[in-house]
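Exercise 7. Given the encoded structure of a 344-residue chain, write a plausible sequence.
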């Protein structure tokens, strides 16, 4: 670009206008209807264009990285979706243009657009992963918002039963039953084939995920076996969860409809995996077994998320905080209250 660059509106969207020499005016969209955001993007764009190029632009790095990571199933779609949101801010820059201040501006803009901090972390995480893949010593300085607290939403057994009853589509019902009985991720269940089901030994081999990601090898409980036997008799494809004889790409729509019929709020397919883990921990099963079920890389990951659901969590530590004292020193009204609590 050469010549003075001006901000102008074109069909409601802010653009940069300029003239190269004596040629015709040129226009480049900034992809926003907000004036302040347009000015910020104009500054970033001019920063990149006014400097001599010393390396590839981030847009090219991300494209190569996404091609390198092709074949990642749902994760691949998530990466492309994350880059779609971040591209307008970063694609025209070089890695050394990425600063903490720029990341803070991006975080602020995405929050104002309604994105959660968890979503923003995924977007900036993709940027960081791609730049480190291209150069382990990348000069980019990336700052992410604080990691949000883990969600505590999990189903009670009554809610789970209501959800199963509300599944009118057989493939959605089978998905729910298998998710609750295996604690598997949705991607693992949707990729599951019949040759991975061992009815004789009573195991479900979930295989390996994208880029050799670990998965559990859970045994079949009665609920899973009953559902699988019925599904096997009606199967017309190699996939366990099928619709119209084809592999199911996503159950989100049917799952959401079932949740609505069951009167459940704030429930996603991943909540089923979380619920299964909580149930196992609440029942007192060792963290090592729960960790294997979930396919975690170590028990420390499992403990960090689920230890608080254990009936014995921190009870030993709490016993060390006991102080011996004489209840007779309490006022009479407090003694009566303690007795009522002890003998309801």
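Solution.
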């Amino acid at each position: 670009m050469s010549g003075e660059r001006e901000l102008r509106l074109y069909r409601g969207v802010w653009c940069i206008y300029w003239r190269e020499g004596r040629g015709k005016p040129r226009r480049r969209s900034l992809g926003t209807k907000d004036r302040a955001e347009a000015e910020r993007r104009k500054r970033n764009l001019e920063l990149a264009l006014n400097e001599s190029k010393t390396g590839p632009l981030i847009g090219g790095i991300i494209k190569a990285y996404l091609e390198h990571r092709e074949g990642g199933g749902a994760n691949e779609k998530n990466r492309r979706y994350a880059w779609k949101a971040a591209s307008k801010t970063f694609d025209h820059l070089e890695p050394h243009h990425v600063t903490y201040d720029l990341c803070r501006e991006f975080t602020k803009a995405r929050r104002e657009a309604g994105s959660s901090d968890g979503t923003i972390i995924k977007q900036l995480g993709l940027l960081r992963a791609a730049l480190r893949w291209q150069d382990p010593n990348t000069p980019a300085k990336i700052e992410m918002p604080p990691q949000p607290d883990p969600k505590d939403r999990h189903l009670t057994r009554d809610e789970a039963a209501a959800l199963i009853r509300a599944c009118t589509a057989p493939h959605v019902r089978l998905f729910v039953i298998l998710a609750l009985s295996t604690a598997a991720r949705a991607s693992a269940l949707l990729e599951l084939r019949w040759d991975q089901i061992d009815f004789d030994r009573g195991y479900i081999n979930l295989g390996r995920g994208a880029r050799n990601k670990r998965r559990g090898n859970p045994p079949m409980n009665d609920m899973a076996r009953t559902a699988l036997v019925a599904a096997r008799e009606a199967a017309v494809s190699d996939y366990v969860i099928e619709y119209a004889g084809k592999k199911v790409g996503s159950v989100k729509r049917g799952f959401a409809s079932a949740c609505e019929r069951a009167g459940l709020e704030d429930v996603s397919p991943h909540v089923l995996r979380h619920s299964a883990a909580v149930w196992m921990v609440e029942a007192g099963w060792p963290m090592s077994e729960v960790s294997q079920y979930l396919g975690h890389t170590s028990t420390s990951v499992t403990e960090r998320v689920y230890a608080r659901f254990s009936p014995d969590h921190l009870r030993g530590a709490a016993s060390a905080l006991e102080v011996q004292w004489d209840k007779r020193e309490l006022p009479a009204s407090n003694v009566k209250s303690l007795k009522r609590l002890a003998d309801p």
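Remark. The domain at 157-309 is CATH 1.10.443.10 (hpI Integrase; Chain A). Students should compare their own answers with the one above.
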